[in-house]
């Protein structure tokens, strides 16, 4: 989450009253209207006034607005009620104001009342940031262009925690299986933040990382519940302490090793890709994913150019060599990893052995610049598979 987005969310949560709307052509003056300035919905007068404007008169007040937590304007909120006009506008920003241009049309404007005369405002211009803002505050698309209801504030995280708690109470065993843990963490996150299939398909790299983080949070909730009292009690022997510690560590490793595979499967399901997971190939090897199917792989008449293999490893600096003989019919081995950064020498060696890295898009910048064009994002890889399966 970037800094401006995070500050916008926090400002809404901490403010007395907050408002959001999409910036329109009418706001910027692109429609040829008599005046530029943000139009504020009639029902949102409480953002600035104690009483609504009265038809037949104008009234205004001046306020200080801090934009993007960077610079301030002395702006004017005015109700135009004389003649045929009946509208509220926020005006006066100065000549160099950067958020009333044609390119701002479609951006999300957020205004938060901090004190009676001081406000904070943010402009979000990226689709991902706007969707993240709405999801974090659980704001429906029907609640844009108006006051953000208090019941929508701080509910997404609360819903996620409540979902984790409900799952913990439902457990009959000490720990769920890895797939049960992954599925429930993902469902809790999706339901709490309003994540739909359309959103997943628009940004699979981002949502995959969110799912992995949510599962880690859920695992910690369960782990703390199961082990807090044991750790706080006395261990009779060093051996008893070691056994408990090893149990905890081994369970952590087991979960982390399967987590990535489970969530990748769900991504592929969302895109309706044909694949088989853990299909036995030569030498009893089991690639994590074969596209389109394991049956296709074992059919000697199936075109090898349409066969794709993907291995998944959270880290791969040393373990990437393990995948080289997992599917002999497939020359190029694709490897998805959460590893952030690999040396140029190691990357050269990987490509010499026909290993193509796939990483989450946000991690791409952590790799040496000369290799970035050769590394696929998850979205790139999905498009490659879809193209292959469409032929």
UniProtKB/TrEMBL annotation:
Residues 219-382 form the Restriction endonuclease type II EcoRII C-terminal domain. Transmembrane segments: none annotated. The keyword 4Fe-4S does not apply. The keyword Cytoplasm does not apply. It comes from the Bacteria. One of its GO terms (molecular function) is endonuclease activity. Residues 15-137 form the Restriction endonuclease type II EcoRII N-terminal domain. Keywords: Endonuclease, Hydrolase, Nuclease. This is Type II restriction endonuclease. It comes from Flavobacterium suzhouense. The lineage of its organism: Bacteria, Pseudomonadati, Bacteroidota, Flavobacteriia, Flavobacteriales.
